[in-house]
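Same chain as my last thread, 578 residues:
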Amino acid sequence: MLQPLPPGHFTETYLDDQALTAQLRQWAEAYPEVVRLRSLATTPEGRDVWLLIIGPDPDRTRPGVWIDGNMHGAELAGSSVALAIAEAAIGLHHPRAESDFPLPEHRRVWLQEVLFYICPRMSPDGAERVMQTGSFIRSAPRRAAHAQQDPRWEPEDLDGTGWCRLLRIEDPAGDFVAAGEHPGLMLPREVDDPPPYYRLYPEGLIENWDGETVPQPSGLEGVTDFNRNFPWSWQPEPEQIGAGDYAGSEPETRAVIDFAVQHPNLYAWLNLHTFGGVFIRPRIDVPDSRMNQADLALYRQLEAWAEATIGYPTVSGFEQFTYEPEKPLHGDLVEFAYHQRGCLAEVCELWDLFQELDRPPAKRFVDHYAALSRDDMLRFADWDAEHNGGRLFRDWQPLHHPQLGPLEVGGLNPLVGVWNPPLERLAEICRQMTEYWFHVAALLPRLELAEAGVETIAPGMHRVSIRLRNLGYLSTAGISTCRDSPWNEPVRAALACDGCSLQAGEHERRTLPHLDGWGRGQGVWSHMPWMQRSRGNAHEAVVRWLVCGEGTVEVRCGNPRLGWLHRRLPLPAHDGGG
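reply #2:
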């Protein structure tokens, strides 16, 4: 029996792989009727990429939502938020005073039928390396097969502190100067700055060193970025940095792709990253004017909820989050989920450091990441001392580097306070994100067999009728963009006879159109007081069969996204009277 873990303990610290695995196993053991735990893949270092499936009778297909975190090694807060959503989803079925998430009763009932698919750590190898060393790992600590053997920086704890920080080398041609009043903080050099000047490099060694070349470090040389390794619009190096050898070349990304293809019942997808305090939505390849406008209205609804619950803005990937204007990224997970799996999908960059620094809005949100002034940086150091326990900066200490000789080690370790929020802020972020995602999960379609009956229209002749309807916000097709995708099957109905038979010319199988949902998003004409109109009854469909004889019939309705509904109906016996 696993040792019980206190509710919400993962909001007090960042979990390593062993602790995260223990938490997931405890939930699966404690709540077997609503929780399934499976391994999507085993990483090259032997760790499991875990998937938690939450909902009553978790093996029964019905609409579901996906949440993943920590696809980038240093972005540990994504795992914490994913675990918080998992705990709250379990609480829908097993309320506890310590962890139950307060909800209106009708929404709780609605969410109890949603399947939650939660992959809290897509890159366990990367996260573990980061937690052991504090070094930057984009996704996983391994080289791509195509990587060249040029000189490159490899992180290593050279001073035995347990964390990789920075190396500082005094150089008259250096491009940084020290901020004297903030030990450990370095500032970009300006023309009026007096010496000494410095060059900065990551704490580590130069792999494949030729004795002369000091390479420029970026952390992306020859490695695969999981968020460039998905099949939507995948492009190879050098067109897309970090693309990998082919789409799905990494066992972790391939496992997610395969699972998504095998589970068309996914309708919404949350991809958790850090940092920035922003939601990023499709599309990343065209401006909003060229996006499906019905989908855009749905995202406007999500934007309103995000602003209200957590205070983050929502931006277009193309218009505000391409690193080079109008140069789309390729192989992106959210775009795969949106374009190829029909999900209302978005990224959340957790942790709004820019708000902490009182940064004014940027014209393009992505510009925040390269726009800190000197005053901002000094305020950043003050904020660390006052609100982050001084975790970020350490003063410089002398070190003899085995390749570069005498230098200094120290400076910034951005793990807690930049890449991830301070531990003191983690619980509130988890609570807000759970509240937000429970709003989104409540949008899913729900197929209901509203009526099913038998009418005798002549001796030995019966009309079997059913009325199907969609009670959900979304259409049974999900987003409009993928309505006609071949895997997005229409609603189907079939009748099986036992002891009776269909009348000649009747077909047991019927194909119905997708059923509308009641929601349309925000900013649509039909919601305005001068044009308030509903869409008729396209949310429902009626099917009838003519059946001869006596016995029973069984009706089966649904599709692989919605799951299947069954109803068994007896046929009235003929009494033989005149």
